[in-house]
Design brief:
- By secondary structure, the chain is of the alpha+beta class.
- The chain folds into two domains: about 80 residues; about 140 residues, Umud Fragment, subunit A, CATH 2.10.109.10.
- The chain is built from three helices and 13 strands; from the N terminus they run ββαβββββββββββαα.
- It has a seven-stranded antiparallel β-sheet, with no helix packed on it.
- Strand 1 and strand 2 form a beta hairpin.
- It starts with a strand and ends in a 6-residue tail after the last helix.
Length: about 240
């Protein structure tokens, strides 16, 4: 303690706010560490490169029914694989609206229909458990094409209701450019928002630590009379 010339006692400035500063020293590094972890998670999972869409139409039944919400992630052309369900916007088709279809053939693949419903790629019939087959519906156009490089041959899972590559065979064998793909449907079980939650918590701790640090700094600069609550700014001799 120290006294002024009027006899008042004061808390030493360097001790005031020490607890606040210690808390700040703990919270700020922890918060920044969490922010770095969140940034790494966002980069790895691509959580910011996703969008939510609502299925419209029956072309992808029974896999995706109308009204269902899906997560679509951006994908490089080189990452597209057979069997992927992609969101495409094809100039000159579907009135410019994006549609969901399944990738059947990649550039260079030979794709052909067999008995109107089965599909063979490069001479081998592929297993399609996701396809809705309606024996009373028309089989749709037959096709026997080689997919040009850089393009994709797409079909809907509900073959009797899908307006897909089969109906545009006169345009580049019905294929669409891989660059027309806006994204790929992501497995819901693999969708995770933990990087965003971790980042929000890290930011909260960092801001709290900064606030406590400022408060501790200001408290340490202003001496406070220990007798102020009972005797005012100074004591009578």
């Amino acid at each position: 303690m120290s006294s002024d010339r009027r006899g008042g006692t004061f808390v030493q400035p360097q001790r005031a706010g020490r607890g606040l500063r210690v808390a700040a020293w703990v919270l700020i590094p922890v918060g920044l560490t969490l922010l770095l972890g969140a940034a790494a998670g966002i980069t790895r999972t691509g959580v910011l490169d996703r969008e939510r869409i609502t299925v419209a139409g029956d072309a992808m039944q029974p896999t995706y029914r109308p009204g269902r919400q899906l997560t679509v992630e951006r994908v490089d052309e080189a990452e597209i694989r057979r069997g992927d369900v992609v969101l495409v916007r094809v100039p000159g088709r579907y009135g410019g609206a994006p549609v969901l279809q399944r990738v059947i053939g990649l550039g260079g693949d030979h794709v052909e229909s067999r008995d109107g419903t089965r599909v063979a790629v490069n001479g081998e019939e592929i297993d399609e458990p996701y396809v809705l087959r309606d024996k009373f519906a028309p089989a749709g156009p037959r096709y026997d094409v080689t997919v040009p490089e850089g393009l994709l041959f797409l079909l809907g899972d509900h073959r009797a209701d899908a307006n897909d590559s089969r109906y545009f065979l006169g345009e580049r064998s019905g294929s669409v450019a891989a660059s027309d793909v806006r994204g790929r449907v992501r497995d819901e079980a693999a969708t995770s928002l933990w990087p965003l939650a971790l980042g929000a918590f890290g930011a909260l701790l960092t801001l709290l630590g900064v606030g406590l640090g400022i408060g501790g700094h200001l408290a340490g600069r202003r001496p406070r009379s220990a007798d102020a609550a009972t005797t005012g700014p100074y004591r009578m001799p």
